[in-house]
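Appendix C reproduces, verbatim, an entry submitted by the partner laboratory led by Prof. M.T., so that reviewers can inspect both the input and the predicted structure.
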Amino acid sequence: MARPDTVIPDKPESPYPIVQDSVVVSGFGRGSSELGIPTANIPINDDLNQLETGIYYGWCQLKPCTLPDECKTRTNGREVIYNHGKNLRNDDLKVLPMVMSIGWNPFYHLKEKAAEVHIMHKFDDFFYGAQIKFNVLGYIRPELDYTTKEALIEDINLDIKIALEALDRDAYQTYKDL
């Protein structure tokens, strides 16, 4: 399937905004390492599960927790430290733009549906276990399969560009207050 043209409405339209509170969990370990596009994975709840698979955009905000660090094992066997966002800086705690993939990620042949949030910000540390509040303000495109990793990265970068242009509009800026 070819990438469809993206038409972003002047303001969020029903069913948006969708506001969610969640927690960042470890994912598959490929967003940063393989693609250079880190993601904050979140559990799929009933609201997210009802959305059409694809790419969405909106705003998000991280909040650290005071829980002690803990070590957890990813599905690939690698261990990760859940620091619950304790190392986040003030700049990391601002409301930030995001794109989110919900689906099966056909390029990677996932066996379970995933929600992966790419926060458009440079972080110095991981923040597994941190709280995340976000809103979904619109839909960019359906999930697609790719023949190369480079084509996937190119499309993700286009999604980011589209999201940033949409979120720069006054009507979307009003939803920045989470």
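Residues 149-167 form the longest helix (19 residues). Additional entries are available on request from the coordinating office.
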